[in-house]
């Protein structure tokens, strides 16, 4: 099964001394490609370093909305410099997160999100978007800037999923799809055309059933794929293959 995990966080802080062992065995577990996602400068640099060490790993770099209020003065130039590195395929993880009352101010989040969309557009790169409790503002911005990219770890409604697809974007689902109380996610997944679906782990988080609560890694994506395949009425292996092709179309195109 040629697994393409289109959203993973392989940070030493989460995996410790086991990180290299985990990454070295993933290819033997069917993992063909991983897009390792940064959330600020240090984690983005860390993911680029992994991409340089492992042939099957690629990187995305960006500022997560949780970090929007703590940016260095020269963040735009630093981000642009990193985006020009080999094997950096996307701007991410970027977006809006209104879940926590003490999070970064909404106007600051929107400003940083928009600026990163502009940078991505200028460099011709796709974007990896985080949107939590912010569907209205996220859609409004996406309709204006029309980026190429994915709504990651989708948590919105079926109606929002339809709007995202109309914009030509992809929709990514994690292990949440396997949770027994995820009817909203099932409905959204059913709404998305199969050629617009991506498989993600968001590891080390969001481990799918039967590993819920454990530290996740890319090999566990097969369980999410099985649920997605069930929703779409196809075999798991076919779903993994289709999602891989979708990911390559979005992130690699003619770049490899």
How many E strands? 8
Helix content: 40-55%
Strand proportion, as a percent range, falls in 15-25%
Largest sheet composition? 8 strands, parallel
Alpha plus pi helix count: 10
Low-confidence stretches: none
In which order are the strands of the major sheet placed?
A: 1-2-3-4-5-6-7-8
Query: What would the principal axes of the Cα set say about the shape?
Result: globular
Helix-strand sequence: EHHEHEHEHEHEHEHEHH
Question: In brief, what are we looking at here?
Answer:
The protein has 256 residues and is of the alpha/beta class.
Could you explain how this protein is built, in words?
The longest helix is centred in the middle third of the chain and has 18 residues, at 106-123. The protein is globular and about 50 Å long. With 256 residues, the protein is α/β, with parallel strands linked by helices. The mean pLDDT is 97. The chain has an eight-stranded parallel beta sheet. Strand 4, helix 5 (106-123) and strand 5 (127-132) form a beta-alpha-beta unit. The two termini are 21 Å apart. Helices cover 42% and strands 17% of the residues.
């Amino acid at each position: 099964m040629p697994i393409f995990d289109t959203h993973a966080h392989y940070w030493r802080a989460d995996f410790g001394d086991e990180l290299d062992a985990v990454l070295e065995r993933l290819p033997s577990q069917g993992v063909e490609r991983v897009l390792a996602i940064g959330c600020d400068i240090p984690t983005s640099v860390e993911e680029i370093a992994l991409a340089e060490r492992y042939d099957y790993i690629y990187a995305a770099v960006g500022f997560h909305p949780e970090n929007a209020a703590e940016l260095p003065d020269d963040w735009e130039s630093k981000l642009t410099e990193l985006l020009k590195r080999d094997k950096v395929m996307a701007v991410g993880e970027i977006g809006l997160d209104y879940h926590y009352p003490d999070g970064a101010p909404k106007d600051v989040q929107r400003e940083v999100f928009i600026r990163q969309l502009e940078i991505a557009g200028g460099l011709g790169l796709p974007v990896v978007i985080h949107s939590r409790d912010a569907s209205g503002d996220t859609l409004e911005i996406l309709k204006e800037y029309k980026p190429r990219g994915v709504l990651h770890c989708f948590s919105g409604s079926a109606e929002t999923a339809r709007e995202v697809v109309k914009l030509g974007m992809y929709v990514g689902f994690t292990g949440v799809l396997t949770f027994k109380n995820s009817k909203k996610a099932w409905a959204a997944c059913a709404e998305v055309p199969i050629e617009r679906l991506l498989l993600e782990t968001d590891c080390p988080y969001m481990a799918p059933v039967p590993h819920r609560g454990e530290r996740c890694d890319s090999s566990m994506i097969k369980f999410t794929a099985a649920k997605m395949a069930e929703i779409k009425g196809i075999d798991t292996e076919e779903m993994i293959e289709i999602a891989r092709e979708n990911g390559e179309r979005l992130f690699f195109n003619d770049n490899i």
